[in-house]
Design goal:
Number of helices: 13
Number of domains: 1
CATH architecture: Alpha-Beta Barrel
Strand content: 15-25%
Number of strands: 11
Largest sheet: 8 strands, parallel, barrel
CATH topology: TIM Barrel
Bound molecules: flavin mononucleotide
CATH superfamily: Aldolase class I
Radius of gyration: 19 Å
Structural class: alpha/beta
Length: 299
């Protein structure tokens, strides 16, 4: 089944679902499974330490699927983004999420290859700045999203950004079921990003204990704090408590501190990605039917 929006038509995908780029979670099997399920699989470029590793990963993805894929690119001097961009364009990456630096740096090259550039934003001010720099669309990262998150509810922020900027907006944060996707599309999102739910899948690169922690936690056990990275982000509270208890020599922040958003509420099994996406589509259909049944003519 397909769910059609302007976003799916432009990107050439079956479903308005982007499998989130997640640091140390989204690798080749994850991207391939999402693409084959009709969604857009994405990964963050910093997951690969060298451009050679990135090249090999892109080749592995392209051996398995020719469907559209996306990346999160950091446009900052610390990152070899020019080489990364060239490799991505060569491999036919058509969707770029910019989260650091100036997206205008890559617009011409991406557009020349038929791709699109969207910017992650958590405030209207960031959205207006990105629009002035020429991005094709915005990703409204709301409160409770996994990773670095905003402070505004996703269902409030998405239509607010769309109205004030006039750009297509992808909703991110707390969307992992079809009914939640229906709500996001209802308030004007052109697509959704799902992250947290996809940590607990067979194809995710998260450690088994991390996947299990996502299954076990409730949304009350997610804390938002800037303490870890300097910017507000969501974390499994237990992983922070465990980290503080362990002797410093045995701990590694990037390995032992686990980010996850409030969507842990809807993560109940470690399933294959194809199954999660199919369940989302089925649930979307039911949600739309349920809503349709609420419409009655006055007698
Ligand atoms: C563990 C984790 C790592 C993440 N790493 C990145 C990243 O490297 N780049 C990025 O653009 N977004 C990153 N995100 C944010 C996701 O791309 C996405 O916006 C978010 O997960 C959506 O909200 P949800 O988790 O409520 O579904 C990360 C999220 C999580 C949970």
């Amino acid at each position: 089944m397909k769910i059609r929006t302007a976003f799916t038509e432009t990107l050439g995908i079956d479903l308005p679902i982007i499998g989130a780029p997640m640091f140390l979670v989204s690798y080749e099997p994850y991207v391939i499974a999402l693409a084959e399920a009709g969604a857009l699989g994405a990964f963050p470029l910093p997951n690969y330490r060298t451009t050679d590793e990135l090249k090999q990963a892109l080749a592995a993805i392209r051996r398995a699927t020719s469907r559209p894929i996306g990346v999160n690119i950091h446009l900052h001097g610390r990152f070899p983004w020019k080489e990364q961009l060239a490799l991505c364009l060569e491999a036919g990456v058509s969707f770029f999420i910019s989260s650091l630096g100036n997206p205008a740096l890559i617009l011409d090259d991406v557009h020349a290859n038929g791709g699109r550039v969207y910017a992650d934003v958590i405030t209207l001010q960031q959205g207006l700045k990105a629009r002035d720099r020429g991005v094709d669309g915005l990703i409204a990262v709301g409160s409770g999203a996994g990773g670095h998150c905003g402070a505004i509810s996703t269902l409030v922020f998405t239509p607010y950004l769309a109205q004030k900027t006039g750009l297509p907006v992808v909703a991110a944060g707390g969307i992992s079921t079809g009914a939640q996707m229906a709500a996001a599309l209802a308030v004007g999102a052109c697509a959704v990003i799902t992250g947290t739910r996809l940590i607990a899948t067979q194809e995710s690169g998260a450690a088994p204990a991390y996947k299990q922690a996502v299954i076990d936690a409730g949304p009350e056990e997610i804390v938002t704090t800037a303490e870890i990275t300097g910017n507000p982000a969501t974390w499994l509270a237990k992983s922070i408590a465990d980290f503080k208890e362990r002797p410093a020599l045995e701990s590694k922040r990037w390995r032992d501190l686990w980010s996850a958003g409030q969507s842990v509420a809807q993560a109940e099994t470690i399933a294959p990605i194809g199954e999660v996406i199919r369940a989302m589509v089925d649930d979307y259909r039911l949600a739309v039917q349920r809503l349709d049944q609420t419409l009655t003519e006055p007698v």
